[in-house]
Amino acid sequence: MSLTFALVGNQNCGKSTLFNYLTGSNQHVGNFPGVTVQKKEGILLKDKDITVIDLPGIYSLSPYTSEEIVTRDLLLRNKPDVIVNVLDATNIERSLYLSLQLIELNTPMVIALNMMDELQASGGSIDIKSLEKKLTIPVIPITANSGAGVDELVRRAKTAAETGQLPERIDFCKGPAHVAIHSIAHLIEHKVRQKGLPLRFSATKLIEGDDLLSAELELTENEKDIIGHLTTELETALDTDKEAALADMRYTYIEELCSETVHKPDESIAQQRSVKMDRYLTSKYFAIPIFLLTMFTVFWLTFDVIGATLSEWLELGIAAVTDAADAGLTTAGVSAPIHSLIIDGVFTGVGSVLSFLPTIVTLFFFLSLLEDTGYMARIAFVMDMLLRKIGLSGSSFVPMLIGFGCSVPAIMATRTLASERDRKITIILTPFMSCSAKLPVYGVFIAAFFADNRAQVMMFLYLTGICMAILSGLLLKAFVFNGQPVPFVMELPAYRLPTARNIGLHMWSKAKDFLYRAFTIIFLASIVIWLLQSFDTRFYMVEDPAQSMLAQIGSFIAPVFAPLGFGDWRAATALITGITAKEVVISTLSVLTGSGDEMVGSALQTIFSPLTALSYLTFALLYPPCVAALAAIRREMNSGIATLCIMAYEITIAWLMAFAVYHIGKMLGFN
Amino acid sequence: MDAITLNNLAIGQKATIITVGGEGILRRRFLDMGLTPKTKVMVRKRAPLGDPIEIFLRGYELTLRLDDAKKITVQPEEV
Ligand SMILES: Nc1nc2c(ncn2[C@@H]2O[C@H](COP(=O)(O)OP(=O)(O)O)[C@@H](O)[C@H]2O)c(=O)[nH]1
Ligand SMILES: [Mg+2]
Predict the structure, then answer these.
(1) How far apart are CA A447 and CA A453, in angstroms?
(2) CA triple A364-A365-A371, angle to 5 deg
(3) Chain B contacts of A381, Cβ < 8 Å?
(4) Are A108 and A151 members of one domain?
(5) How confident is the model at residue A597 (pLDDT cuts 50, 70, 90)?
(6) Ligand 1: does its nearest atom lie under 6 Å from the Cβ of A122?
(7) Residues A61 and A13 placed together within one structural domain of the fold
(8) Nearest CA of chain B to the CA of A275: how many Å?
(9) Are the Cβ atoms of B36 and A284 closer than 8 angstroms?
């Protein structure tokens, strides 16, 4: 019989570690439909009939964040055969708060009590038998990173799923809360049964003022009135409001339960160690230098040492394969257009993107290290001040910083942000961080036009990018994401040793993701650009690139750029090819001006003046990123339309800013 | 000692939560994370740039912004 296990738990409880242990590389990362929330699914390594779903880390089943909503929807509608609720045993009080809500769902459920190694090392113990008896569901102690107890967990979860064994006791309330919950349950019982929803869950959520649920149940005004009345009674009786009343009810029950079943020190050994480490890592004077040093080391190792070396090797390999294919096609006597399609289109296009792969994988090695150890949460704590004005939190700092290296991993890294809203805003702002592929473009132009002001022009470009990101953040906050932001109330988890399996799987999943895009979207884009570049409008292959369709399109749109000072068709064409990869702007300009790499600088001087060159660079900085980054945006946003909107926005900003640079420059007397 | 808001609690000082304010998702978050009346909290430190703060409650470390901490009143323990 095929079964589905759903893993549910707080952030940092070790859910991914358990998921990875259970499924190995048999996993698939997708998205929930319509939202930017990730959904991981996998097949149990030891039992191919069991599917495991890893749900987002959440603290409650309230209907506020998209993570909570999708988890709720999945648990209510696609009912898994069993809920595996993962708890951090060293942090059991807060973890049980979610458990009490899950139990109300009336679905077979087991508790995986994780981090038992830490609890035991700290001299703590939990009376499992009595906890099971009180909660009326199986509780299995495990240590996810070593796998201890996991087989037993699977066995018990399977039994619970197969027998459909439900929690017997779902009632944790006393006094006025009890009265209110039961009266409301009675009132709505019929409707709830019709919709196939769990009764107790619905009743408590209605007291908490859950609008989603109230709409779904299509409650009449009369019913709403009665619920309102019962809620008010509860509030008066307890002299507090409904939300606090229910939270208090749950925590009071948990405190009692824990006082009877849990013996542990206030702080586990791992926590004590973390507090000591934080004396340096988040201290007033050392925190920021340590952070900068860490990021510098990560960048240096990724972009200069490891990633770059591996990329070079891969490039050599790709070149060798390309040459071999080239020779093979020649011997086979393949016709010229096909030959060109394969070599100039596919191999060159996909090859240039593929050579990024080692950099991305290396970067994600470091990022998962930062994330899994718990240091990423500290960075968020330390850097929060800087980002809150634009409606973000410190958690977005690292992804945006990575944007200066490469937008692709930066956008992929937003996946670890806990809120959908933050993920989306960060994805939109990241491409404004000038990525390293734009450096060759700046380099050539600066050498040709600004040899005396190198530093100033570079500064100008980087700062313009950052300012546009800030401006866009403010605009998004004011007009697009103008609801209440997800508050920055975040756990700082204890520092923990990451596992090789977690890091390896993370790198592998990012590599797979990137490869998939390289061979789909990027593959197609390369062919399209090749077609446009190699043929004229009558579909004859062209000798002179100036005759190609691409050049025609370039000439056609060139007037759009005339107000920015660079109406030349070659400048426009290079911007189009630049979409494949930013450094291609230069090679296109050198081909179209017939100048070759050495002379491209002097050739540019015939097309641009210093002022129009600056305007051109401004445009190149801000207009949509390369196709690999666009594909990443498409993937992470989970929406083609949103991606097109972002592109349109970036083109607009780029145009306006280049216009401003050109005209203000002219007014100031430059040319 | 008089009740004060959480943002004014001195570093290292322990206190008991009296009321939890805020609204919508913020309030929900507070309650879900265990910031309920009668809970004991201690301010661990401020971030290097002065904000947010790190607090210790229910056996774990939580960070929140000063502006949000203003919405929670606490009764400091006598020292
Ligand atoms: N000591 C110990 N560490 C664990 C255990 N389970 C997970 N970890 C570590 O805790 C950290 C967070 O785990 P992760 O699976 O990413 O948590 P998630 O946020 O719930 O997915 C990682 O560094 C894991 O290696 C455990 O049972 N014992
Ligand atoms: Mg994690």
Answers:
(1) 10
(2) 80
(3) 47, 52, 54, 63
(4) yes
(5) low
(6) no
(7) yes
(8) 9
(9) no
Q: Which residues of B touch A274 (CB under 8 A)?
A: 61
**Euclidean distance between CA atoms B61 and A493, whole angstroms:** 7
Name the percent of chain A lying above pLDDT 90: 69
| B67 in reach of chain A (CB within 8 A) | no
User: Whole-angstrom Cα distance, residue B60 to residue A199?
Assistant: 33
CB-CB: which of B28, B39, B62 is closest to A243? B28
Which of A169-178, A353-362, A615-624 comes out lowest in average pLDDT? A169-178
Residue A503 Cβ inside 6 Å of ligand 1? The answer reads: no
Q: Which ligand is nearest to the CA of A122?
A: 1
Sign, CA dihedral A663-A661-A388-A88, equals positive
Q: Is A406 helix (H, G, I), strand (E, B) or coil?
A: coil
Report the pLDDT value the prediction gives residue A533, as an integer from 0 to 100: 84
For A86-134, the pLDDT digits (tens) are 999 999 999 999 999 999 999 999 999 999 999 999 999 999 999 999 9
What is the reported pTM?
A: 0.91
Number of structural domains in chain A: 2
The Å distance, Cα A17 to ligand 1 centre, comes to: 6
The finding on whether A499 has its CB within 6 A of some atom of ligand 1 is yes
Whose CA is closest to A648, among A661, A635, A633, A667? A633
DSSP state of B58: T
Q: Are residues A207 and A142 in the same domain?
A: no
Structure tokens at A564: 């920015």
Torsion angle defined by CA atoms of residues A563, A551, A433 and A387, in that order, rounded to the nearest 10 degrees: 60
For residues A85 and A231, membership in a common domain is answered with no
Average pLDDT (A368-396) is: 93
Q: At what angle do helices A500-519 and A357-373 cross, to 10 degrees?
A: 150
Same domain, A183 and A220: yes
Counting atoms of ligand 1 from 1, which one is nearest the CA of A15? 20
CATH number for the domain harbouring residue A130: 3.40.50.300
Residues of chain B neighbouring A94 (CB-CB closer than 8 A):
33-34, 58-60
Is residue A603 in some structural domain? no
CB A488 within 8 A of CB A387: no
Chain A residues 210-249 with a CB less than 8 Å from chain B: 240, 243-244, 247-248
Q: What's the ipTM? A: 0.97
Cβ contacts (< 8 Å) between A267 and chain B: which residues? 59
Assign 3-class secondary structure to A197-230.
CCHHHHHHHHHCCCHHHHHHCCCCHHHHHHHHHH
Structural domain boundaries, residue A206:
175-263
**A59 close to B (CB below 8 A):** yes
Longest dimension (CA), chain B: 35
* B20 to chain A: closest CA residue: A244
Of A104, A110, A207, residue with least CA distance to A158? A110
CATH classification code of B4-76: 2.30.30.90
Question: From the CB of residue A126, how many other CB atoms can be counted at a distance below 10 Å?
Answer: 21
Burial of A360 (0-12, 13-18, 19+ CB in 10 A): buried
Q: Are A94 and B58 in contact (CB under 8 A)?
A: yes
Cα–Cα distance measured from residue A632 to residue A636, given in angstroms and rounded to the nearest whole number: 6
- What is the distance in A from the centroid of ligand 1 to the CA of A195? 37
Atom of ligand 1 nearest to the CA of A86: 20
Contact between A267 and B28 using a beta-carbon 8 Å cutoff: no
Tell me the pLDDT tens digit for each residue of A600-653. 888 999 999 999 999 999 999 999 999 999 999 999 998 999 999 999 999 999
Q: For residue A497, give the ligand 1 atom closest to its CA.
A: 23
